[in-house]
Specification:
The chain is an all-alpha fold. The chain has 6 helices and no strands. Helix 1 runs antiparallel to helix 2 and helix 5 packs antiparallel against helix 6. It has one domain: MFS general substrate transporter like domains (Growth Hormone, Chain: A), CATH 1.20.1250.20. The relative contact order is 0.23.
Amino acid sequence: MCFGWLGFNGVFYGLLTWGPLYLAQAKGFDLKTIGWSTFVIFGAGFVGEIIGGTIADKWRASGASANRVMRTLLGISSAVVIGGLVGVTLVADPTTAVVLLSLVMFFLRWVGLFWSIPSILGGRTNAGVLGGAMNFSGNISGFVTPIAVGLIVGATGSYTWALLYFVGSAIVMGASVLTLNYNKRLPV
């Protein structure tokens, strides 16, 4: 659970802190275009989080197990995020990069479902400590990622390895969401 949230935040905080500079420096966007592009990218994330949560709720209500719902939705999310980020490293066209980043953010925000995991696994007695541990691990990535990306971009003069750092974070997220047992509740 903690590694999944750490991987999620590696991508999310990376795009949040370095995405606008990437669009300016690597894609040549002016300030107005950066603003609208960032709005579209993160707006797609907002919509994705609502849709992902709605799908999860309806699927669980139909009787599907937590493992099936979470592994399927979060596994799809991880695969799309990884593929989209790899695509961003390969495309030269700025508009295509924004479309791919919007797709990445749409599916990345499905991982907002992770906030249900502490209560799923811990119940009332352990949800708080599990949520705190999960958030702590994610915030480690939240402060390491902007520094690491800055060092990578400064050392290479390019965003390619920074984007691959995000791919690595998404792989950690994906491996975690696929191996976590969402049906196993902690003993009280």
